[in-house]
Write a structure and sequence with these properties.
This protein is an all-alpha fold. The protein contains 2 helices and no strands. α1 crosses α2. It starts with 6 loop residues before the first helix and ends with a helix. The model has no long low-confidence stretch (mean pLDDT about 95).
Length: about 70
C-alpha cells in the first residue's frame, strides 16, 4: 500500500492511465480500423499518451479542482 500523503500522485497515475488507454485505443481504431498488429500499435500509442498524460494531470489537477469547487459551490 501507498501512504495517503501520495494520494494526489496515485490518483493522477490511475486517471491518466485509464483515460490514455481508452482514448488511444479509440483513436487508433478510428484512424486505422481493425488491422493486423492493432494491439501492438495501440499499446505503443498508449505508452506515448501516458507519458504525456501523467505529468500533465499532475500539473493541471490542482487548478481543475479549484475551478470545479467554484463551479460546484454556486
Amino acid at each position: 500500500m501507498v501512504s495517503v500523503k501520495y494520494l494526489h500522485q496515485v490518483q493522477a497515475a490511475l486517471l491518466s492511465g485509464f483515460m490514455s488507454f481508452i482514448m488511444s485505443g479509440a483513436i487508433t481504431f478510428i484512424n486505422l480500423g481493425w488491422v493486423d498488429g492493432f494491439v501492438g500499435i495501440w499499446i505503443h500509442a498508449w505508452l506515448v499518451a501516458y507519458a504525456i498524460a501523467f505529468p500533465t494531470i499532475l500539473l493541471v489537477f490542482p487548478f481543475a479542482r479549484k475551478l470545479a469547487m467554484r463551479i460546484a459551490s454556486k
